[in-house]
Amino acid sequence: MDIVGVLVLLLVCVFTAADGWRGLSSASSPRVCVVGGGPAGFYTAQQLLKARQDALVDIYERLPVPFGLVRFGVAPDHPEVKNVINTFTQTAHHERCSFHGNVNVGRDVSVEELRQAYHAVVLSNGAEANRPMGIPGENLSGVFAAKDFVGWYNGIPANKELCPDLSCETAVILGQGNVALDVARILLSPLDMLKATDITQHALNALAGSGVRRVLIVGRRGPLQIACTIKELRELGNLPNTRPELLLGDLEGIEETLKDLPRPRKRLTELLLKAVNGGDNKAEKSWSFRFCRSPVEVLAGADGKRAAGIRLALNKLEGSGENVRAVPTDQLEDVNCGLIISSIGYKSILIDPAVPFDPRRSVVPNDMGRVQDAPGLYCSGWVKRGPTGVIATTMNDSFDTAHVILQDMESGLLDLSIKKPGAQAISGLLQTRGVRTVLFSEWEKINAEEERRGKPHGKPREKLLDVEEMLQIAWSSRIMDILTFLVLLLVCVFTAADGVRTVLFSEWEKINAEEERRGKPHGKPREKLLDVEEMLQIGWS
Amino acid sequence: MSSSLVRVLLHRAAVARVTLAPHQTLRKTSALSRCGSVLHRQIRGINTFTLPLRTEEKVTINFVNRDGKKISVTALTGNSILDVVVDQNLDFDGFGACEGTLACSTCHVILEEDVYKKLGSISDEEMDMLDLAYGLTDTSRLGCQVCLRKDLEGMLLRVPETVADARVDSQQESST
Ligand SMILES: Cc1cc2nc3c(=O)[nH]c(=O)nc-3n(C[C@H](O)[C@H](O)[C@H](O)COP(=O)(O)OP(=O)(O)OC[C@H]3O[C@@H](n4cnc5c(N)ncnc54)[C@H](O)[C@@H]3O)c2cc1C
Ligand code: FES
To answer: What are the boundaries of the signal sequence (chain A) (predicted)?
Structure first.
């Protein structure tokens, strides 16, 4: 009995630790894996799980922490945008979903291996590189890609050493999209507006000593083409102690075009016009848009190493509306500045040479989410559509991809009669390669630790910046589990060795029967046994 | 000893796998909702009849979902449309992603003109988010910002398609 008990215990422990055992029970279920644990990955998984009661979905994520750009992109002063994490967490807790962090697809496991193990593979790996400006001086110190700058204040492990020098007065941001406005807002916000957010402490410290007073946001095209959304522009306009410094000339003649514009563009332009005339003259800081200008060269300072300015070419606009093109003229303009942040776009990278890739558009070529010439391979999110659009856009296009997968399951294009091993096979592979995954429950330990560290500072969390430390925390109590188990095992063994053996109730019943048997000839209900040794002998007989 | 430990571990394993359909979210952040419905609910929970402020009444509202199906529900005044969708578990994919904090536009609903007018003015912030909604119309509202009132009895709300139409999409293209 004891041996059996220990064996059962062992099995249960192994299953609990493996946490993927539910997969074993349903052999013919459609198995889908998603590469990337950002919004696209989670929304695709959510839709698949909901629409098919038999589908099993595994999410593989490169980092030990989930949520992609919701954690690493969305500005710290936009906590409400991050509420989507609650829904993602529910998806991760779904009994037919499992999350495997710390798995770099393309390096730790190939897409082909995933395709062997699953009926369908969805690429949702986002857009993780930045578009270079391609101009001389781009690599001087003081020049940053917005992606890295954002990563620095949002805690991307790879960007923790960025240490931007914020001692200069003027910063130039190239690009006029939402990311550009996020960066401008972070540079200009009073510290009070940031210190209770999940911004990294090192960024907060650097911003506390920042000398930046003036931020120029430069765009290739005109005021009618700025790419940000109105919410972001309004926030910039509402910053305390900061005034807009727009040039009236830039907006000349625009008022007349207003009536023909679609409502979103019209409202955005009206707000821009309002900003020209508004603003508090006593404000110490300012922001401004510079239109129709393209970067030509980053100008070095006297030491030849640090950026001291940027040369811009003035553009003229051809065409009309959203399709206007910027054509450079030979007119140039130099702007003095010590900080240059290029925010001209993210781009996807090829994670595995076996995956079709369109290097020009930096996306996976696809038809409604079906990857070209690769049956069973799908894509969603930024890697499918390009790095534009808000989370809601990503959500809709992920739902679309899920619907296409469901269609292909129905139509037989995906052959579900073939049994696929799913996570079981991949876990095996990863183990032989020495890759240990971070399960969602383990991410929750990291999460708890981050929240704990944020608390004394009134922050929702203090993000961990070091992958090694994340892993240590994630796996910490797994070691504890094993230790506890070992201790218990030892107790079992010692108990057995000490010769203490228990009498179970069923064994007492044997004693009971014997007592009743012995009483019967004397007309007694029982003849009680008086000797413990004898009781034991009968009990264990 | 070993068997009770087994039981504990089995129980733990079971607890770790509590099932929830992914669309059945536990959103209860309506504290932020304009309508203050959570407050109402709490008040009700404490004491129903000694409070003179008990203003809730039942209204019936009708949704037309993305498949064109009509769904009628009874809800209490003081709730937002988003509260109703969450509380009644109405299955509109992706509805209310930001949980009523004016940060997503996924709670977009289209009203009938007279109801739209009856509701009165709309905040700039709501308009800003609406501008990002797919299939924006002149009678569009964000469901998390519309509070139920008695005079909205019988109102009809259309939950619009989310399929990207080319025009809106090209506008979205630029937003990053
Ligand atoms: C700076 C910034 C701010 C933004 N702010 C907002 C905002 O305020 N509101 C809003 O609605 N939208 C915002 N967005 C847009 C929003 O973040 C995107 O729409 C959305 O995150 C795209 O989702 P995705 O899943 O395609 O990509 P991502 O979010 O990038 O997710 C991709 C995931 O894949 C993982 N991955 C990559 N390579 C691999 C690999 N080889 N193996 C395994 N996993 C891999 C990554 O680690 C990541 O977790 C912002 C975007 C940026 C860049
Ligand atoms: S739920 Fe996000 S704006 Fe209404």
So the answer is: 1-18
Q: Is A267 within 8 Å of B9 when comparing Cβ atoms?
A: no
- For residue A149, give the ligand nearest its CA: 1
Mutate to test the pocket of ligand 2, among B79, B83, B90, B105 (most ligand atoms within 8 A of CB): B105
Which ligand 1 atom sits nearest the alpha carbon of residue A346?
53
Using the mean position of ligand 1's atoms as its centre, give its distance from the Cα of residue A455 in Å: 26
Of A360, A359, A362, A363, give the one whose Cα is nearest residue A371: A363
- Per-residue pLDDT, averaged over A441-460, amounts to 97
Helix (H) / strand (E) element for A99: namely strand A97-101
Least confident of A88-102, A437-451, B11-25, B151-165: B11-25
Nearest CA in chain A to B173: A388
CATH code of the domain occupying A28-128+348-436: 3.40.50.720
Residue B80 lies in a domain: yes
Evaluate whether residue B140 is within a structural domain: yes
| Alpha-carbon gap: A89 to the closest alpha carbon of chain B (Å) | 9
CA B102 to ligand 2 center in whole angstroms = 5
Give the nearest partner residue to B22 out of A49, A228, A441, using CB atoms: A49
Confidence of residue B162 (pLDDT cuts 50, 70, 90): confident
CB B130 within 8 A of CB B140: yes
Superfamily of domain A129-347: FAD/NAD(P)-binding domain (3.50.50.60)
Q: pTM for this one?
A: 0.83
What Cα–Cα distance (Å) separates residue A169 from each residue in A189, A326, A466? Answer: 15, 29, 31
Contact (CB<8Å) B94/A395: yes
B82 lines ligand 2 (CB under 6 A): yes
Does A487 carry a binding-site annotation? no
Give the lowest-confidence range in A26-35, A43-52, B138-147: A26-35
Residue A380 has pLDDT above 90, yes or no: yes
Q: Which of A12, A91, A392 sits opposite B105 (nearest CB)?
A: A392
Examine residue B14 and state whether it is found in any structural domain, yes or no: no
Q: Is the ipTM of this complex over 0.90?
A: no
Higher pLDDT, B175 or A30: A30
pLDDT value at residue B26: 41
pLDDT at B36: 60
Task: Count how many domains chain B has.
Answer: 1
Domain boundaries, chain A: 28-128+348-436, 129-347
- A494 — pLDDT class (breaks 50, 70, 90): low
Cβ-proximal residues to B128 (8 Å cutoff; 6+ apart), any chain: A229, A230, A231, A234, A267
Query: Structural domain of residue B141, as residue ranges?
Result: 61-107+121-153
- Quick one: chain A helix, strand, coil %, rounded to 5? 45, 20, 35
- pLDDT tens digits for range B27-77: 444 444 567 644 433 333 333 344 445 568 999 999 999 899 999 999 999
Structure confidence at residue A279 (pLDDT): 77
**Of A168-182, A336-350, A492-506, B135-149, the least confident:** A492-506
The CA–CA distances, whole Å, from A351 to A36, A127, A302 equal 11, 11, 41
Give the closest ligand to the alpha carbon of residue A383: 1
The closest alpha carbon to B53, from B22, B77, B33, B72, belongs to: B77
Q: Residue B53: its pLDDT value, please?
A: 52
Task: Give the closest residue to A532 by CA, choosing from A516, A508, A513.
Answer: A508
B17 lies in some domain: no
Q: How far apart are CA A227 and CA A237, in angstroms?
A: 16
Model pLDDT, residue A277:
78
